[in-house]
Amino acid sequence: MQPMPEKTIAEDSSLSLLQKILLTTDGTVTQLLELFTGEKISVQKLEHALVAGGPPLLAVPATEPVLSRKILLRGTRPWMYAHSFLVPSRLPRGMQAAMLQTDTPMGQLWKAARLETHREIVDFHREDDAGLAALFDCDGPLLSRSYLIHASGAPMGLIVEKFPAAWFLRDRPGVFL
Q1: pLDDT tens digits along 39-98
Q2: Greatest Cα pair distance in the chain
Q3: CA pseudo-torsion sign 97, 39, 149, 165
Q4: How many C-alpha atoms does 167 have within 13 Å on its Cβ side?
Q5: Sign of the alpha-carbon torsion through 28, 31, 35, 36
Q6: Residues 6+ apart with CB under 8 A from 71
Q7: Whole-angstrom distance between the N-terminal and C-terminal Cα of the chain?
């Protein structure tokens, strides 16, 4: 049996405490980034489209609309990339509209909707992606985690978050690179 991603992350001595927190948190990453960086974090939408079907982990029919949303969480620089797959039919109505019409981070939308959710980390790895690394103006591998968001007993979304492996290496407040 393969170890859970959280255990793999916790035991990885090459990761700093800050990296481990960002990769295992079940809170909103936006708030953590604001605390770590001392900056106001905003959403920069890169791509936003309804697609038919979604990743198998969402267990939706191939014809069901799924929102594919690619964003950067940024302050004075981009700090994190996220690709979300959300099932609109499993979201509260007000949240569906806000997802499509605003740049509000998802965690803040869930909080405003008082939506009870459970996050399940399903993958953690390092990867090389020169195109994505260019968005961060850096070279080298990225750290990536994927997690399902469950609400009302069904997966309502799959989110993949990535940031440069060379970032957040120090465990002292205010030191990130």
Answers
A1: 999 989 999 899 999 999 999 999 999 999 999 999 999 999 999 999 988 887 778 777
A2: 48
A3: positive
A4: 22
A5: positive
A6: 43, 44, 45, 46, 81, 82, 84
A7: 35
pTM over 0.70: yes
Of all helices (H) and strands (E), which one includes residue 142? strand 142-151
Query: What size, in residues, is the chain?
Result: 177
Place of tokens 């990339």: 81
Backbone phi and psi for residue 136, each to the nearest 5 degrees, phi listed first: -95, 0
**Structure-block tokens of residue 16:** 């700093």
Number of other residues whose CB lies within 10 A of the CB of residue 117: 15
Strand stretches in 39-129, DSSP E = 42-52, 65-74, 78-86, 118-127
131: its two tokens: 């195109």
Tokens encoding 66? 């799924």
In one-letter notation, the amino acid at residue 124 is: F
